[in-house]
Amino acid sequence: MRVLIVEDDRQLAEMIAKAIGEAGFTSEIAGDGQLGLLWLKGESFDAVITDIMMPKVDGFEFIRRVRAEGNTIPIIVLSAKGEVDDRVRGLDNGADDYLAKPFSVTELLSRLQALLRRVSGRSEPTVLVASDLKFDLLARKLFVRGEELELQPLEMKLVEHLMRNRGRVLSKSVILERVWDYSFDPKTNVVETRVCRLREKLGLRTDGQPFIRTVKGFGYAID
Asked: What are the chain's domains?
């Protein structure tokens, strides 16, 4: 998935781009609505995240022009203008979702993924499968080669998150935010410790490899 970030605050835009990258997406940054329109005309994207208060072409006008050209790309608005009238105006102009600043990066990513699922017509799964693992989301049970494995609630949450993002390498910071609800602390080793314990409980796949793959210097994945 490729996301266009239209934001004149470079530091904030780069923070969003980093979070999106850690979640497995790619992104491009446009510093104002005018550049954003040029990006959309020349490149293909799956979604747009846009600010409102920007030079040259503001977010409201950016959205209006995108929709006027018949482009139905999903658009999420990020703005310090959080009053009801501003939210209504953004949605009326064609935005699909609206998140007021300051915002949680975790919430932004969740809204982005939910929007992409909705647009693609995919329903939320009730069972996750990866290799010899099967996670029944309704019963909250994990099975390894058909045998139920008892895990602690936090371990269940961790393995569920990795399985929902099967094939993606998730960084420690993303795992901490989504599983522990912590802000990233480079000194903590809670993720490494819990992954190590979880690996021991899961055992090995039928090919002799661990279920959770480590990408040195970045994070973890279930393939």
From this structure: 2-120 (3.40.50.2300), 127-222 (1.10.10.10)
